[in-house]
């Protein structure tokens, strides 16, 4: 099966940036324990502190889609939805990864 990467672009409501980051971390800690979830990253635009990308890797599309349809997902992300102004998701098949020898794990 082909690994899947999702990229979710989100813009928070004004003044909600810190709470958004904290709530995302709470949800991500729970999501990381789910079958098929491989990695999650939250990155903030260096020039626009209200714009974020949530990047997540899943073992395969079936497990990602199962999570996406679940009530568990709705419950975990309810607060995050209230803090955002907009969101747009894209899903990609992960074909190749080339890592630098200098990569530092976070």
Order of helices and strands: EHEEHHE
Round the Cα radius of gyration to an integer and report it: 14 Å
Under the CATH scheme, the architecture is: 2-Layer Sandwich
Which regions are unreliable across 5 or more consecutive residues at pLDDT < 50?
none
The number of E-state strands comes to 4
Structural class by helix and strand composition:
alpha+beta
Mean pLDDT: 92
Fill in the CATH topology: Alpha-Beta Plaits
Approximate shape: globular
- Main beta sheet strand tally, sense and closure: 4 strands, antiparallel
Helix count equals 3
Main sheet strand line-up: 2-3-1-4
> Portion of residues in helices?
25-40%
What's the domain count? 1
Can you tell me about this structure?
The chain has helices spanning 17-31, 61-68, 71-83; strands at residues 4-12, 37-44, 51-58, 84-93. The protein is α+β, with helices and mostly antiparallel strands and 106 residues long. The chain has a single domain, classed as Alpha-Beta Plaits. Helix 1 runs antiparallel to helix 3 (71-83). The two termini are 27 Å apart.
């Amino acid at each position: 099966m082909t690994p899947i990467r999702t990229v979710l672009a989100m813009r928070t409501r004004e003044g909600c940036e810190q709470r958004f980051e904290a709530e995302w971390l709470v949800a991500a800690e729970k999501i990381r324990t789910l079958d098929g979830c491989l990695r999650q990253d939250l990155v903030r635009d260096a020039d626009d502190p209200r714009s974020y990308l949530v990047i997540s890797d899943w073992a395969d599309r079936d497990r990602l889609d199962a999570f996406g349809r679940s009530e568990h997902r709705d419950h975990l992300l309810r607060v995050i939805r209230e803090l955002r102004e907009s969101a747009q998701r894209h899903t990609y098949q992960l074909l190749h990864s080339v890592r630098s020898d200098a990569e530092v794990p976070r």
